[in-house]
Amino acid sequence: MQKFGLLITALWLVGCADSEVKTPDENTQMPSVNSTPLDTADSTVDAPMTQPLTIGDQEFFVEIADTREERELGLMYREFMPENMGMLFVFEEENPRNFWMKNTLIPLDMIWLDAEKNIVDIQAAQPCKVENCPIYSGKAPAQYVLELNPGVLKAAVGTKAEF
To answer: Please, are residues 154 and 112 in contact by the beta-carbon 8 Å criterion?
Structure first.
């Protein structure tokens, strides 16, 4: 019965909506989470799609950022991330990689991984809410960059990740 009431309300709102649809231009940054579309059968969960990633005996569940838009947004605007979660930035090839923490509200560890998925650098990054944020550059070329909560990774440069 509650779903029927929500459906009626939604239809009423659509009928009352302004007929002109406004879309953001290219320069508009919209804070959003990389998430799965809502299933009409169960609209109670809107969680990000994750994939397991293992380093040593630790397992993390990471969101994948493999498009330009997803990599640009990254973990911006997030106020919290569970300890065993993270984000894996995937690039087409191994190159020097630079990151910043603009509009990122939580501290992170950045882990640079080469094409063979070996850790080539680890750096602690701090939130930045100003215009000119510091740039974090990996010490070696990377094809992947993993962002985790600070201090949770118990591995060193040279350790291989599996995903």
So the answer is: no
Beta strand pairing status for 85-95 and 58-65?
Answer: parallel
Show the domain range for 114: 52-162
Q: What is the pTM of this model?
A: 0.71
Cα 135–Cα 104–Cα 37 angle in degrees, nearest 5: 125
Whether 5 contacts 12, CB under 8 Å: no
Cα gap 131→135, rounded to integer Å: 12
Task: For 128-149, write each residue's pLDDT tens digit.
Answer: 989 899 999 999 999 999 999 9
Report the CATH number at residue 154. Answer: 2.60.120.1140
Chain segment 43-74, per-residue pLDDT in tens = 444 557 899 999 999 999 999 999 999 999 99
